[in-house]
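Hi Y.,

Following your request, here is the sequence exactly as I used it, all 139 residues.
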Amino acid sequence: MKIWQQNIDIDIVNQRGQHTLSDFLGIQFIEVGDNFLVAEMLIDHRHKQPLGIMHGGVSCVLAETVGSTAANFCVDANHYCVGLDINTNHIRAVRGGKVIAYAHSFHLGKTTQVWSIDIKNIEGQRISINRLTLAVLHR
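Below is the corresponding structure, written out as tokens. Let me know if you'd prefer a different format.
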């Protein structure tokens, strides 16, 4: 079932993130389905903590970027969504390569949305699981 209430495609979602933190970190949207959104990010020095692995906050930024972007296309032009809460469980360390974030909705309500964002490496191994709750606000 299609969940989008606004016109959405890869070019539109990538343009939306220009000159933002997601642009600085290299987050690129790569797939839009009827009920999901996918982005990828190549891990480099900007994403690492002193031990040489991806900083846990980067997982949170990636998850919130993909989830909140998806959420904002699930409301009409008179509304917008902002994050209320994010929960991240770190499963596997990443030293480099590409990570891919898959966002699916759990709940698309009139005042809140809840999204699941699963982050995996290119081999399909889970890096983190994330749950994002957003408020739906009137413009």
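The chain has three helices and six strands.

Thanks again,
Q.
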